């Protein structure tokens, strides 16, 4: 009987945490993730270090200042 509970507990834990083992990409911004991860093309001045570091050399007049706040997400 004890062995049966171990198998059941292992099965439940596997089902619950299987989603955490998926290979989801680390999305910096929703726009580039929605377009299939094309961050090198659509990156802004703030997201340039994540996608294309050479883009930080391009500075536009409307690129004053900004901050990226860490996000925590989950999926079901």
From TrEMBL:
Lineage: superkingdom: Bacteria
UniProt keyword annotations, A-Z: Signal
Protein name in UniProt: Conjugal transfer protein TraF
Extent of the signal sequence: 1-23
């Amino acid at each position: 009987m004890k062995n049966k509970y171990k198998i059941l507990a292992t099965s439940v834990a596997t089902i619950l945490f299987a989603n955490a083992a998926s290979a989801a990409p680390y999305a910096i911004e929703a726009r580039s993730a929605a377009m299939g991860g094309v961050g090198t093309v659509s990156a802004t001045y703030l997201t340039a270090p994540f996608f294309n570091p050479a883009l930080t050399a391009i500075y536009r007049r409307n690129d004053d200042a900004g901050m990226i706040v860490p996000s925590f997400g989950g999926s079901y």
